[in-house]
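hi! just following up on the protien thing from before. the input was this:
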Amino acid sequence: MKQTALFSENNFNWLAQFDSATLLAKMLELCDSAAVYSVNKDQEILYWNRGMEKLSGLRREDVVGKSCRQEYVMTEASSNQEQLIKIGRTDGSKIEVKKVIQVLPDKEGAFAGGIGWLRILSEPAANDLLPKVSVEINKPAMGSRNFHGLLSRAPAMRDVFQIIENAAETEANVLVRGESGAGKELVAKAIHTLSARHNAPFLAINCAALSANLLESELFGHVRGAFTGAVKDHKGLFQRAQGGTLFLDEVAELPLELQAKLLRVIQERNYIPVGGDRSIDADVRIVAATHRSLREEVKSGHFREDLMYRLRVVPIFIPPLRERREDIGLLIWHFISRHNAENFRKIEKIEPQAMRILLDYPWPGNIRELHNVVEYAFAVGRGPTLRLSELPPEFRETRPTADQPLQSTSSRQASPLSTEQETAAIRLALEQSNGKVTSAASSLGMSRATFWRKRKLYGI
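and the predicted 3d structure came back as:
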């Protein structure tokens, strides 16, 4: 009996129009609920999703780029096999899993790496993976998306993600504008990862961190004897990032004399190292970032207008966290989940008063500040509940006033939160109570009837 092919010829023609790396990245994005990882031919880990983090207790930033343990190794001989293995977790326990492997050949058919999928076999071990609390701590919230490390459910960020995807398909320079801590470097990395340059280097530099002389040497390199202390040739970032992407953070701080040299690199695709006498070709895509308006910097005479237009081919603006308040709770639980995996302290719920203050805080330091607050709570507090007393001093000094808490209908003196804040608070209460309406309503000081009415009103 003839076996039906998985893909018809037309199907393959349709798939052929996509860049294989982009297609694979998008498919892997769908697999966070499962434990999926990938290795290259040298058994170095290339991809480690959230499912693998929960299963093993190992964070992706601690394993990606490093040699994998023996239990995760893939070889050409193990192609498409199912194996029963035991893996060690960071808490010292071991768990039996089924490992399914799909080996990936290169264009010549040689082993180039593979993708692995792990499934827990024993139910008790599976339960051990979950915190002794409602499972929503490690479960993505409804409508949320983790876009190359940018976690959000705000409509404004969906537009940002789309621009990133579209811009990545081109060679255009990109200017990312956003406040400190909003995630500008993550945007740059996402553009690089989704681009045709993803196999080449991604390098970054903060233009405000170095003096003009050091910055020039770091960007363009120098030759031996160019200045006192230049005892050998030094390759600059433009040379080291050849074929890849260079991220220029705080580009508005670039000195005017270096702005002229950067403009030449963009226009002529070459540059001369400090002290050198010959030009070097530059094939580098630039993604720049700033928290200032370059147009205002041009008006004040601090930035070249011609350079601004060269850098600002595709502008991307990242809204501050205070303008996407529906992401506050999502990010709080995301960072709590990450620290819970370290097995030092496990936070299972947040004191309602503490949550109200976190939701109402303006977050001038954006996501970086929010992460720092979660780290602070893990460091100074103990037990399964994050309490108001475990927040940094500036939070404890801001006591809830009449217009801050989400009040029940019996409290007529208090002004309610904004619709956006109230919607976020209700979503969080439901997530924190694992969908139990009575508990969620109680945590917000509402009656069950009022809670149901507001859910219907906001379409939650």
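Confidence is low (pLDDT under 50) at residues 1-7, 122-140, 398-416.
The chain has 19 helices and 16 strands.
cheers
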